[in-house]
Every structure is written in structure tokens, then in C-alpha cells.
Design brief:
2 domains; 13% helix; mainly beta; binds copper (II) ion; 173 residues; Jelly Rolls
């Protein structure tokens, strides 16, 4: 029984990977790696993953040096999505908006965020570990990591990111 389940999970995981590969390149295909949870929650087949086991990948929609781990959900679909972003010390998220409400929880490091269409150090609010920020859809935001930081993003998909200044968009470089 255990073997069968493992095989099924593998098949499902590869199907998710294929799906993501096909749809990558569209404006909303911001994050490349498959979700670690896939759709296993539909069966009594729980997922328990330690932070140290998480696999990180680059994202075409985020600046170089930032990495992403998709926890659950499909970035393209109208469903609950959770992912983490690892930002190196000094890493910046240029002003941008999302098509959906974004909830950010600071998991580790030292993060700061601001509200506005222009990056302004004076508008940054410190968000130490455990802090949360909630930005409504279309509300411009920017972020800065004072040290290596991991944030968790929880949204209702489909997720996307639009940079206020197109020159900040790594997909257009
Ligand atoms: Cu954002």
C-alpha cells in the first residue's frame, strides 16, 4: 500500500511539473518550481516538511538572488497558494502590485516594507520575525531585507506581480 501511494504521489508531482512547464512564460507564470504539497491534501496523505528540507529555486519574476519555494497551490489557479521567498541581505523588492490581496509573514531575518509607488527608505516599516503585512489587490508595495530574510506569502490565486517601473521587471531584461 505504501509503495502504491508513493508511486501515485510521484505521478501527480510530475503532472504538476509538466503543467507548470507548459504555462511558464505567461505573465502570471512568475514562479517555476512545483509545489511541495502538490494536491496530496485531497487524500489522507499529509505532508510534513521541515524548513531545512525545502527546495529553493530562482524565479523569473523576481530579482536575481531571490529564491522561491512553493508550499502549496498552483500559481496559475484560483485557489489558496502559499510560498516563501528568500531574500539575501541588502536585497530589495522594487515597487510593485499584485492582482490579489497579499499576506506576508516574516519567518526569519529582518525585513521592512513600505507602501507607495516609489522606493523610499523613510517609508519603510521594520517587520521583525513574526510580523505580518496585508496589502489589498493593486496596492503598491516595496520591500527591503536588512539581513538574509525568509518571508511567507499567502494568497488566493492566481498570483502575479506587476512592477510600477517596467525597468525593474526581471522578465523584461
Ligand atoms: Cu508584493
Amino acid at each position: 500500500m505504501k509503495t502504491i501511494r508513493t508511486t501515485n504521489t510521484k505521478i501527480r508531482m510530475s503532472r504538476v511539473t509538466t503543467l507548470l512547464t507548459i504555462t511558464l512564460g505567461t505573465a502570471l507564470a512568475a514562479l517555476p518550481a512545483p509545489s511541495i504539497a502538490a494536491d496530496t491534501a485531497k487524500e489522507c496523505n499529509p505532508i510534513m516538511v521541515q524548513a531545512s528540507e525545502m527546495k529553493w529555486a530562482d524565479s523569473p519574476a523576481l530579482p536575481k538572488g531571490l529564491q522561491v519555494c512553493i508550499l502549496y497551490g498552483d500559481m496559475q489557479k484560483a485557489e489558496p497558494i502559499g510560498f516563501r521567498i528568500k531574500i539575501p541581505a541588502g536585497g530589495m523588492l522594487a515597487p510593485h502590485t499584485h492582482p490579489v490581496i497579499e499576506r506576508v509573514t516574516v519567518i526569519s531575518g529582518a525585513f521592512a516594507m513600505g507602501h507607495g509607488e516609489k522606493f523610499d527608505q523613510a517609508l519603510l516599516k521594520d517587520l521583525p520575525v513574526g510580523s505580518i503585512s496585508i496589502f489589498p489587490a493593486g496596492c503598491p508595495m516595496f520591500g527591503f531585507a536588512k539581513e538574509e530574510t525568509v518571508i511567507q506569502v499567502n494568497v488566493e490565486g492566481p498570483w502575479g506581480i506587476t512592477y510600477i517601473n517596467p525597468a525593474d521587471d526581471p522578465r523584461k531584461k
